[in-house]
Amino acid sequence: MRLPISPAARARRGAIPLFLLAAAGIALFGCHPGTEEAKRLTRVCQTGDVVACNALGQKLLKGEYILRDEGRAAGLFKQACEGGVAEGCSQLGVLHQNGTGVRRDSALALGLYRQGCEGGAMDGCMRLGLMYRDSVGVPKDLAHAAALFQQACQGAQLTACSHLGALYVAGGEGVAQDPARAAALFQQACDGKVVSGCIGVGRLYAAGTGVPKDEPRAVQLFKQACDERSPAGCFELGDLYSLGTGVTQDFKRAADLYQYACDRGHGKACYSLGILYQNRTGVTGHPAQGAALIARACRLKYTEACPKPKST
To answer: Which of 153, 155, 218, 229 would bridge 202 by S-S if both were Cys, CB 3.0 to 4.6 A apart?
Structure first.
């Protein structure tokens, strides 16, 4: 599969830089509107406009018509956050949580997400919810995570809708199990091009849980996610080809999809591909390759692939 080319990359292919504005880190590509906007944001930020500083930080982080500089982006997000721009707090939290351009500090990230959320940055609410869900720097609290995902989802942070949908699928602590509610949330996220939402609702259609069973619809949803280079989407689509569910059974196509997902760290895909090698189904090669793939799946923390302890 060929990876998509970003708009910035297309612009770079078609234009030659004239010179570099070193102070701002701006790569100039003729008079492209994206370059002109980066220059304008630099000038406005230098006047103390924290909204412009936050926007410039986003461009620096993405390398969007400006030379990528994560450390400088972090400084601009800090300036924006201190100036009352909630999105700047949330974005600075992401950098501290990941150790990108700044020191890794989950406790600081937690505070920044909370500050961003309280200021109306829905991404901050969603990320704060993830920390409560996964017990990162705080005790696990699924009920609080659900409330934060709900707040963010209502604020049009569609990835939060997908996370909330997953809680409704699992049920138990946090929210009562409600597959129909989960399906609606996943679909809302999928409609907003959130691939985890497409995968979530696709699983429900494949199982007939919360929605009428519709295997061809599941195929369509998993393909949509796979086309967006989602390893999980490609794995799910591969499973349908392997089983002949909603599509004509095709082990070769399944193997190709498993391979793509496995190469990108999807443990269960490595395991499924390993089984195909061991059974010599849809692949050419020695069964020993299957054992190697299953071992890799275990290393990727797919526990079903790991050797079982010997009983005493």
So the answer is: 218
Residue 6, pLDDT score = 42
Exposed/middle/buried for 29, CB within 10 Å: 0-12, 13-18, 19+?
middle
Report which of 251, 219, 256, 252 is spatially closest to residue 236, judged by C-alpha positions: 219
Q: What residue spans define the domains of the chain? A: 16-112
Give the residue among 215, 232, 234, 213 at the shortest CA–CA distance from 223: 234
Tell me phi and psi for residue 294, to 5 degrees. -65, -40
Torsion from C-alpha of 81, 85, 86, 88, nearest 10 degrees: -50
**What is 16-112's CATH number, 3.40.50.720, 1.25.40.10, 3.30.565.10, 3.30.465.10?**
1.25.40.10
User: What does the block give as tokens for 193?
Assistant: 């091009």
The list of the chain residues with pLDDT below 70 reads: 1-32, 311-312
Return the pLDDT at 14: 36
Residue 13: what pLDDT?
35
